Amino acid sequence: MDNNTPRRHPTSRGTLWFGLVLVCVGIVLILERVGHFSFHNWWALFILIPAVSSLATAVEVFRRTGKYNIAVNGSLFSGLIILTVALLFLFELDWGKYWPLFILLPGLSATVGAFPLGQSGEGFIARASRSFQAWQFGIGVSATLLGVTFLLRNFGLFYPENYLLNWWGVFILIPALGGLISTIRLLVEKKGFSIGVLANLVATIVVAVVGVAALLGLNWNLVWPLILIGVGIVIIATIFT
User: What angle is formed at CA 238 by the lines to CA 233 and CA 241, rounded to 5 degrees?
Assistant: First the structure.
């Protein structure tokens, strides 16, 4: 791209879309008054302004950097979530069926965001990203699959309770697996226990116990003591390592 080529400022893009939406709303209102056209939720067109602007920002950042980085990922999925809200209102879709999309889309964003996405080097952000990417990936995959499952269930295509009564407990165990991977990775990097390793291990135990308890339908009055016992054992073990 020629350096002398003027770039469109993000504010200009937002103004452009705002103007286009106003034109569309005006056309809709005219059609309603002169004909038999009816568009009840025309006001939802205004929600498209931040949605399209966010998507346009994602495209612009990707074109400028040539990388799918954190900024692109954030703008893309923010735009998709807002766009989903606008479409649900515009087409008067049943929120009772489509609400799992608001679990699915953030889950996809977290899953994709767990990868480096342009973060390199040995800076604090890069190191933190590598240390906790297994956690983020596990949470993202769990949310994505949970959203898909609820969506299929709402449309009567799949009923997980027919196969496993407390099926949702599985989706708690997935992040725990990510936590275990993260703990092992930190153990290897730190060559032994540290505060970060201990924190990861404790968090993993808590999430895993909650997931198992949910899956087996255990009495929650017994779960908290089990968590305390598990965390206590880990803390004691670190003294002798």
Answer: 125
* pLDDT tens by residue, 69-85: 989 999 999 999 999 99
Are 172 and 126 in a shared domain?
A: yes
Q: Give residue 220's domain range.
A: 122-241
Name, in order, each residue with C-beta under 8 angstroms of 215's C-beta and a sequence gap of 6 or more: 164, 166, 169, 170, 172, 173
Classified as helix, coil or strand, 165 is: coil
In this structure, the answer to whether residues 181 and 237 fall within a common structural domain is yes
Are 56 and 129 part of one and the same domain?
Answer: no
Please tell me the pTM assigned to this model: 0.81
Kindly state the tokens that stand for 195.
């505060």
SS (H, E, C) 112-165: HHCCCCCCCCCCHHHHHHHHHHHHHHHHHHHHHHHHHHHHHHHCCCCCHHHCCC
Q: Would you tell me how many other CB atoms lie within 10 Å of the CB of residue 199? A: 12
Measured between its terminal Cα atoms, the distance across the chain in Å is 57
More confident residue, 107 or 15: 107
Tokens coding 170? 């599985």
- pLDDT tens digits for range 42-60: 788 888 888 988 998 999 8
Q: Is residue 202 part of a domain?
A: yes
Q: How many domains does the chain have?
A: 2
Q: Taking residues 157-178, report their average pLDDT.
A: 95
The helix/strand/coil state of 34 is helix
Q: Is 191 left (phi over 0), alpha (psi -120 to 50) or beta?
A: left
3-state secondary structure of 119: coil
Tell me, yes or no, whether 106 lies in a domain. Answer: no
Indicate if 135 and 234 belong to the same structural domain: yes
